[in-house]
Amino acid sequence: MRWPWQQLREAGIVGMNARNGHYIARYNERRLYPLVDDKLQTKRLAVEAGISVPELYGTLYTEHDVRALEGLLAPHPNFVIKPAHGAGGEGIVVVRGRQGQDYLRASGAPITLGALSHHVSNILSGMFSLGGLPDQAMIEYCVDFDPVFAPITHHGVPDIRTLVFRGVPVCAMVRLPTRESDGKANLHQGAVGAGIDLHSGRTVGGVHHNYPVSHHPDTGAVLADFPIPHWPRLLELAARCYELAPLGYLGVDVVLDRRYGPLVLELNARPGLSIQLANGRGIGPVLQRVAALPQIPEDPLDRIRITVPDFDAARAAAEAPGAQVDAELAREFYF
Amino acid sequence: MRLPAVAWLAAALCIVAAAMIYAKVAWVGLPLKPDATSAVWTVEARASFYAQGNVKARLALPSNPPGFEVLDEDFVVRDFGLAEELDGGQRYALLSARRVAGPQALYYRLSVNPDDTPGSAREAFPGYPKVPDYPELFQPAIDTLLKDVRGRSADIASFARQLILRLNTSSDPAVQLLRDEATTPEARARQVVDILAGARIPARVVHGLELRHGVLEGRLKPWLEVHNEQQWLAFNPETGDMGRPENFLVWQVRPGRLLTVENGESADLRFSVRRAEPRAVDLARQLDSPLAKLSLLGLPLHVQNVYTVLLMVPFGALLVVLLRNVVGIRTFGTFMPVLIALAFRETELLWGCVLFTGVVAVGLALRFWLEHLKLLLVPRLAAVLVLVILLMLLLSIASHRMGFERGLSVALFPMVILAMTIERMSIVWEEHGPQDAIVQGLGSLAVAATAFIVMSQPLLQHVVSLFPEVLLILLAATLLLGRYTGYRLSEYWRFRSVWMGKG
After folding, report:
1. Does B495 contact A13 at a Cβ distance shorter than 8 Å?
2. CATH of the domain at A63
3. A231 and A190 share a domain?
4. How many whole angstroms separate alpha carbon B232 and alpha carbon B204?
5. Minimal CA–CA distance to B307: which of B466, B454, B477, B458?
6. What is the distance between the terminal CA atoms of chain A, rounded to a whole angstrom?
7. In chain A, which residues have their Cβ closer than 8 Å to the Cβ of B325?
8. Mind listing the pLDDT tens digit for each residue in B154-189?
9. Do A150 and A136 share a structural domain?
10. Could you tell me which of B72, B329, B410, B476 has the fewest CB atoms within 10 Å of its CB?
11. pLDDT over 70 at B291, yes or no
């Protein structure tokens, strides 16, 4: 009989205290937090670094600006309103289209301009920001998500979370909204997480409410062995975010847009631990291996090669002429 | 293996604390465990007033309180001259000073030891009282009452007892009229004295202090005494039961004000009570040893009582650290449960939990209703705060009406903390669903209840008030826990799929 903690340690599971004490406290400098906690700043830095992000339509800073909301929204049928300092996906409103005077939320429910304005006021007063400090409201491009994930998702936008340690992608999962999570890609709210094999870019089963699942609870589709399109580009994007915000322990959230491909949605300085369950293995060993490296290469591609030795082959395959057709085929297959 | 710096620091703290405790126990003789059998009560009366000009203050003092042996008494009166006077069995301290202005605080401190040997000395007989002229309205009722009681009693003691009983329980409308005349316990007692005088039985209302450890703002309680030509017999003016309450220190035996101040305004008198070790009290009296000065004993009594509470807070904090970082319970706010636990000291555990749950539940309902008004954050928080205070007031009024005094202590809840808890709970409720909100709410309550239980351990209270350096050990434990990077208990559940079914 082996004790649970021995088994967890052997599985390489990193607990909350270890994450905070060994990784976040040691590798994430506090002065860098504002770079990722303030999504406006993240976006500005990303644009400067040439990392693709959803376009910013406008920012509301004060209660007075809220009056300009209607004019600001007029040219955009689809948009997202989010707090610049939000955490855990709170305070995000997704609008897809209009119905008469009203706007239509992603769920299909109409929302009036008054309700939107009130929501913006709540954001500005700091209702969703860490510590309740006054905040800004961002209005940005609403990702027209690649339908590739349609069979394994229920409404909402799935996103791909990559854990980047010292600039090296160490672990990844795709977070799939469910009926229960109400279109949100947040595992705490009931979304499904499916781990991704870093080499092949294919999913490896999933987790729902901290328990392994093999099928999506709403669509019933098999979660494993699903190829993530643009995988090498996605890895590269995640690795390059380390230059943007040199936080040693960083979560990079990427969405796949139908037109623009992978877009970095946000960075997270305190990424959660469920990614281990989604992948069915702990991140302890790979974190220790990367932590033991005396030096980290400056080139993002070299960093990827630390955990994905055959990255060049994978990239060549992905960029080869027939690759996109393969992806199309895979999509057909899943539909 | 090299130990991290924090381990050395923790070890050093523990060694320092252990050395200090050892020195205090071995050389000064402070007891490690509370002595349950013998206790010394220290009572402090703090008279405060605002002086203008030549001030004369007169403070009633206890003399030979029955059931107690006076060990020691002293005054801290600074520039005031002190004289004592005896007036009809009541002792007074006369304090005077010329040309003083501003707020003044005078202290009187008394140490007593419970002494069960009954006083054998015959107590001076005050003489038979004159039959008073009762108001016409009450005369017939009193006459029948006295006649009734006389027929049913054998001696003065049973007479007094029967009178109180009939006065308090009789359904005769005339007696009810009398009863409605006196509403406070004080007036009740005076009424009994008055009626007893009709039978020419000498009686008096005395005022005394119920000694309870840690009392900060004690008030005197009226009690009834009847003289049977030998000695004064005590009666409960409400029930007629003979005897005094437990640990009842008779302070004032003559009617009149406890404290009178000439040329002083807003005179106020407060009592603090502490139970102490006999040896600790000896020590406090000497206070020569510099080691002994490093305890609470040298401070004024009411400050000692405040620190007894404050020194327990670190235990609550350590518990929160344990429950959050080692067990993994989720709570609203880091130290909110400790503050709630402090409030439980007054409400007691069960009622504390009921009141807390009640206020938060109703507050939450009101908060959801406020949501429709679409208020901005800070005004909404302020509105919730106002509602919480109104709610507490309503609870207090309702419980007082129902004669349920525990409910009054809801006023001691930290209302700002309650308002913030309600706000955060409602946000979690909306964002993560009711389940998360209720789990975190119950988590907070469980942590608060546990913190209360830990913080009210008499042994811990005793140890920390005599040996405050125990907090260094606590600090060391907190530092070590700060470096604990093992799994939390809740993570065994979270990651159960990894280890369950493989064992």
Report:
1. yes
2. 3.30.1490
3. yes
4. 9
5. B466
6. 46
7. 17
8. 888 888 888 888 887 777 777 777 777 777 778 888
9. no
10. B72
11. no
CA gap A270, A115 in Å, rounded:
31
Cα A205 to Cα A225: distance, rounded to the nearest angstrom: 8
Does A259 reside within a domain? yes
Structure tokens at A154: 């229920």
Distances (CA, A) of B248 to B67, B207, B245, B259: 8, 9, 6, 20
Please indicate whether residue A151 or residue A74 has the higher confidence score (pLDDT).
Answer: A74
The answer as to whether A209 is a domain residue is: yes
Whether residues A122 and A154 share a domain: the answer is no
Secondary structure element (H or E) that encloses residue B193, with its range:
helix B185-198
CA A40, chain centre distance (Å): 16
For B484, which of A11, A17, A127 is closest by C-beta distance? A17
- The DSSP line for B347-408 is H-HHHHHHHHHHHHHHHHHHHHHHHTT---HHHHHHHHHHHHHHHHHHHHHHHHHTT-GGGG
Same domain, A183 and A252: yes
Domain of A127 in residue numbering reads as 55-140
A296 and A219 part of one domain: yes
Beta bridge partners of A198: none
Considering only CB atoms, which chain B residues are within 8 Å of A132? Answer: 377
CATH number at residue A212: 3.30.470.20
Using the 3D structure, point to which of A107, A140, A173 is the last residue of a domain.
A140
Contacts A–B by Cβ distance under 8 A: 82
* Token pair of B77 as six digits: 């009166």
Can you give the pLDDT at residue A2? Answer: 78
Nearest to residue B455, comparing CAs of B320, B261, B361? B320
Query: ipTM greater than 0.85, yes or no?
Result: no
In this complex, the residue of B376, B483, B495 whose CB is nearest that of residue A21 is B483
**Do A177 and A301 lie in a common domain?**
yes
